[in-house]
Amino acid sequence: MSASNKRPLIFIIMFLLLTNIGVLGYFLWDKKPHKSPPKQPGIATALKNEVGFNDSQIAGYKKLKEEQWKKFRPKLDEVRKAKDSLYKLLSNENVNDSVINKTADLIGEKQRAVDLQAFNHFREVRALCTPDQLQKYDSLIQQMMRKMGKPPRSDQNKKAKEKKA
Fold it and tell me: Which H or E run includes 37?
């Protein structure tokens, strides 16, 4: 092969090599910061903006929240473990219905304790409210509970995003 015949091949190889390096560089050295989804404002923000909590009330709320989570997290773990034990029974084909019912009752008892503790926490936070703030606080808590009780609707979220685009 003469030198004039090799030139187009060398050009094509160099072009492909540079293209591959460029693509590799694009994926490996992407310096753009990845945006995380926007964080939803916490209840402290809602208490300040919607209920009208002042700085000392917010500080009191944060202290109550911190104490609450120290007690609350272990109870949530207990509920999760009780549910795990229920679903582990699936692997046993000969499990007795009374065992299943007893495990389900245990989940109910633990969930009841979680709900009562949450209720008492919201009652303690309510005690931080001034008389003018009570109605707004009660409304806020009701809204939160309604949102928590609704199942996620990913189909509707996708449709809403498509309409905006």
Answer: none
Q: What residue ranges define each of the domains in the chain, with the CATH number in brackets?
A: 43-148 (1.20.120.1490)
What per-residue confidence (pLDDT) applies to 93? 87
- Which helix (DSSP H) or strand (DSSP E) does residue 65 occupy? helix 55-88
Q: What's the average pLDDT block by block, 10 residues per block, for the chain (165 residues)? A: 74 85 77 63 87 94 93 93 93 91 94 94 95 94 84 59 54
Closest CA to 65 of 130, 122, 119: 122
DSSP run (H or E) holding 52? none
How far apart CA 121 and CA 69 sit, in angstroms, is 10
